[in-house]
From TrEMBL:
Coiled coil: none
Database matches in InterPro entries: APP1_cat, Mg2+_PAP
Taxonomy, superkingdom: Bacteria
Xref: Pfam families: APP1_cat
GO molecular function: phosphatidate phosphatase activity
Ranges for domain Phosphatidate phosphatase APP1 catalytic: 130-285
Protein name: Phosphatidate phosphatase APP1 catalytic domain-containing protein
Organism: Fibrella aestuarina BUZ 2
């Protein structure tokens, strides 16, 4: 039996004049939602299915949004990537907008139905005070990214219900999205070197843990040595951060990451290249290497010359207390963040 066509869309983002959209077209059965008591074999089978994909290249994807139509073509791995310029007046007080993807000249093999996928894209409202760019692995999600075996074990043998967040993260990120006034909408972008194949797992994880909805900017790669390449990690994350900054030229940003890999180095580069754009940087201390700790502290001292506070924090509450003190979040959210941390630890 021929497998159905599937459009996998990744949440787009941008500004009224430039919106970046990406996704993938595959031939595969839709992945089922995870179960909190799924077996070892169920988790392994689901993850293997994410990587054993049949890509559909050279196919036209029609994109309908803001009353306009755009077209692009998938590459040999089934990915499509397009920046559109809708040039529109957006309604006030709204951040998420509908979008529809359809394959032209293609029908589902068994039913003859059109291949359509409805989704959403995010545009930061004019009243946003700042944006947030956050790493995922070992910043939001316990990954053990400094250990190849730990990363692979958690990726293949766990699911969105059984993966663990860092304590207090959900409440802190909700506070950042609301800002100091708690009635605002500050956009949050999640950047990771994890492959796009894990997109649905991460979306489910964020939903289950109550993390704010935002675009996830992952990486095009397979199961090979590049998965753990530090050079590829640095290049990808810097490229995605630059893309977010470029489509939000008037918005300052808060950056969040961890000390385990290259987040401090990447963020220090971003600060130097974008004077006045970065309000604060929070680095979760996950390293047990004294040399690594010394290197991170040296970067922190260097960023102080640019009047940007970069903090190496032991936990979410320490970051939240500083954010409240400099006016990034409402101090009244601190009790909820402390309670969330305690609940997660228990």
């Amino acid at each position: 039996m021929a497998k159905p066509y599937q459009i996998i869309y990744y949440r787009g983002f941008g500004s009224p004049n430039a919106v970046w959209l990406t996704g993938r077209v595959l031939r595969q059965n839709e992945l089922t939602s995870p179960a909190d008591r799924a077996s070892f074999w169920d988790n392994l089978s689901a993850t293997v299915s994410r990587f054993l994909t049949k890509e559909v290249g050279g196919i036209t994807v029609r994109i309908e949004t803001f009353g306009q139509t755009f077209r692009t073509v998938t590459n040999e791995e089934g990915y499509f990537d397009i920046t559109i310029n809708p040039d529109i007046e957006l309604p006030a007080g709204r951040a998420w907008f509908p979008i529809r993807y359809a394959l032209e000249g293609v029908q589902q093999p068994d039913t003859g139905e059109a291949v359509i996928k409805d989704g959403q894209l995010m545009i930061a409202p004019a009243y946003s005070q700042f944006g947030v760019i956050s790493d995922i692995d070992d910043t939001v999600l316990v990954t053990g990214a400094t250990s190849a075996w730990q990363t692979l074990r958690l990726t293949f043998l766990e699911n969105a219900f059984t993966r663990l967040p860092f304590a207090g993260v959900s409440a802190f990120y909700r506070a950042l999205q609301s800002g100091a006034v708690t009635t605002l909408f500050n956009p949050i972008y999640f950047v990771s070197s994890s492959p796009w194949n894990l997109y649905d797992l991460l979306i489910d994880f964020f939903r289950i843990q109550g993390l704010p909805k935002g675009p996830l900017l992952l990486r095009d790669l397979g199961l090979n040595a590049d998965l753990l390449s530090s050079q590829g990690h640095h290049t990808h994350k810097r490229t995605m951060i630059d893309k977010v900054l470029s489509v939000n030229p008037d918005l300052p940003f808060v950056l969040l990451g961890d000390s385990g890999q290259q987040d401090p180095e990447i963020y220090a580069d971003v600060i130097r290249a974008n004077p006045g754009r970065i309000k604060a940087v929070y680095i979760r201390d996950v390293s047990t290497d004294d040399r690594r700790d010394a290197a991170v502290k040296a970067l922190i001292e260097a960023t102080a010359d640019h009047d940007v506070p970069m903090l190496l924090v032991a936990d979410t509450v320490a970051a939240a207390e500083h954010a409240a003190a400099i006016g990034l979040i409402d101090p009244d959210t601190l009790p909820e963040i402390r309670a969330d941390r305690q609940a997660d630890k228990e």
